[in-house]
Specification:
The chain is mostly helical. The protein has three domains: 49 residues, no CATH class; 77 residues, no CATH class; 50 residues, no CATH class. 58% of the residues lie in helices and 3% in strands. It is built from nine helices and two strands. A two-stranded parallel ribbon has the order 1-2. Strand 1, helix 2 and strand 2 form a beta-alpha-beta unit. Helix 5 runs antiparallel to helix 6. The longest helix has 21 residues. The chain starts with 8 loop residues before the first helix and ends in a 15-residue tail after the last helix.
């Protein structure tokens, strides 16, 4: 963890380098939203690691390109239909159909879908048992939500160290729960998907 006032590339790059310097290794998959600063830093530090853009955020981001309010639910369902395919090939085919469907009545949406949705297909390289859990950043979003809830109570911290102490304690609790509680992702099933 770190304390920063922005999500600029410089902060993310320094943070990723600090993780590596402290012993982080063996990173095999990254899931995140498409923050430009994080993306550039991720590419610089973990360039060879496959990246999955959060499918939930992709679906949310697409709403900015929907021309009519009454189309939003339809578009959300259509995008979920692409992501719920059983293989990358099937998802790519469904995406082509979706782009063709919106090409005339929503060309900006069609172009956005064609360019951005494939960033949510990296998950198909994982074993089927892992795909559901690794397609979004929901686990991290939940942790961040809890951290915000707990830090809002304090409202103002006298210094950076006091904030770091509270966050460290909360993250240690979360780590204990993940190690001893209900297993979110069982790593014993690591067979790659069949072609």
């Amino acid at each position: 963890m770190s304390v920063a006032l922005s999500e600029a590339e410089a902060h993310w790059r320094a943070f990723f380098h600090s993780l590596v310097q402290r012993g982080l290794c063996g990173v095999t998959f990254i899931v995140s939203d498409d923050h430009s600063g994080m993306a550039a830093a991720r590419q610089a530090v973990f360039g060879a690691v496959p990246w999955q853009r959060c499918q939930f955020h992709l679906q949310q981001n697409a709403q900015a390109y929907v021309p009519r309010l009454e189309q939003r639910a339809e578009v959300a369902r259509a995008i979920r239909g692409v992501f719920q395919c059983t293989s990358r090939l099937a998802a790519e085919q469904r995406l082509k159909e979706l782009v063709a469907h919106y090409a005339k009545n929503a060309p900006k949406l069609a172009a956005w879908l064609e360019e951005n949705l494939p960033q949510g297909f990296t998950v198909f390289m994982l074993p089927a048992a892992h795909q559901q859990r690794m397609r979004t950043s929901n686990a991290l979003e939940r942790v961040n939500q809890e951290l915000k809830r707990r830090t809002r109570v304090a409202r103002v911290f006298p210094n950076e160290s006091s904030l770091l102490r509270l966050i460290s304690a909360l993250l240690a609790e979360t780590s204990d729960e993940w190690e001893t509680g209900i297993i979110y992702l069982n790593m014993e099933n690591q067979n790659p998907p069949s072609a």
